[in-house]
Amino acid sequence: MRVLTCLFIIFTISSPVLAQSFDTKKYETYIRYINYFKFKYAVKVYQETKLPLNIPDLWTVNHFEGSVRKAEKFFELKITGKALISKEASSISFASIVCHELGHILGGSPRQTIPGAEWSSTEGQSDFWAAKTCLPEFFQDVVLDLQSLFYDSSLQQAVFLQFPELLANPKFFPQNYAFCKQNLKCFLVARAGEELINFFDYYDYMDLPKPSLNSHEGDTKEFKPNSYPSLQCRLDTYVRGALCQIEHSCEPPRCWLPL
């Protein structure tokens, strides 16, 4: 059977498997979120591809992995427990990774040109779909809608504990998020991008300036469908997806998609 894999990132962490196996609260969160994404997107994946979506329980796998592969009869999205419990990881960065991987299946054009992987949206497009579509739905269902089957009060509390000014009336947004114009969903998506990129930056071996909401990658003149954008460009992509929640125009940044 031919297997095609779109790999997000893999690295090994030395802490023992048993340590994460007995973190009951984290494991419950892991399973709850996996079930959410299955419930939300399995039908959509099948409608668009005629293939079922499988997201296995990989809690005890002793390395970080976020990937999606297209096999002959199914798509398999892998997300290990390390994506939730590694240093600098969070529930929000975990959801961002899953959304990115789903974006390879559902994100649309532009797509990769690697032979056999033409089904996969590019890395930049997967980020953009995650930010403009998947993460807003996640935050609506898990954080904002108290009646939702998947509402997570602990995540909502964590957000408001970190940013208590959001509870003010009127809401007061941190200056770095002023571009969201008091829109909470825009703020949450931008914050998700920031948490995800901070997570990757922590493990990045390259000595580059730390990505920031106050910085922006310049426009590119060359389209590279099979490469990852820089971390700053990826953060810019999440900001653009966040702005899609409040602006009529909704376009990805030119740091990875030239005119």
Account of the 3D structure:
The protein has 259 residues and is an alpha+beta fold. The chain has one domain (4-243). Helix content is 45%, strand content 9%. It has 8 helices and 4 strands. The chain has helices spanning 17-21, 24-49, 82-85, 91-106, 123-144, 153-162, 184-203, 231-243, and strands spanning 4-12, 53-54, 63-70, 75-79. The chain has a 4-stranded mixed beta sheet. Strand 3 and strand 4 form a beta hairpin. It is globular and about 55 Å long.
Number of extended strands: 4
Order of helices and strands: EHHEEEHHHHHH
The value of Rg in angstroms is: 18 Å
Task: Please bin the fraction of helical residues.
Answer: 40-55%
Task: Quote the distance from N terminus to C terminus.
Answer: 39 Å
Strand order of the largest sheet: 1-3-4-2
Counting H and I runs of at least 4 residues, what is the number of helices?
8
Q: Major sheet: size, sense and barrel closure?
A: 4 strands, mixed
Task: Count up the domains.
Answer: 1
Concise overview:
With 259 residues, this protein is α+β, with helices and mostly antiparallel strands. The chain has helices spanning 17-21, 24-49, 82-85, 91-106, 123-144, 153-162, 184-203, 231-243; strands spanning 4-12, 53-54, 63-70, 75-79.
Characteristics:
single chain, 259 residues, alpha+beta, 8 helices, 9% strand
Secondary structure elements and pairings:
Elements: E1 4-12, H1 17-21, H2 24-49, E2 53-54, E3 63-70, E4 75-79, H3 82-85, H4 91-106, H5 123-144, H6 153-162, H7 184-203, H8 231-243
Parallel strand pairs: 2-4
Antiparallel strand pairs: 1-3, 3-4
Helix pairs in contact: 2-4, 4-5, 4-7, 5-7, 5-8, 7-8
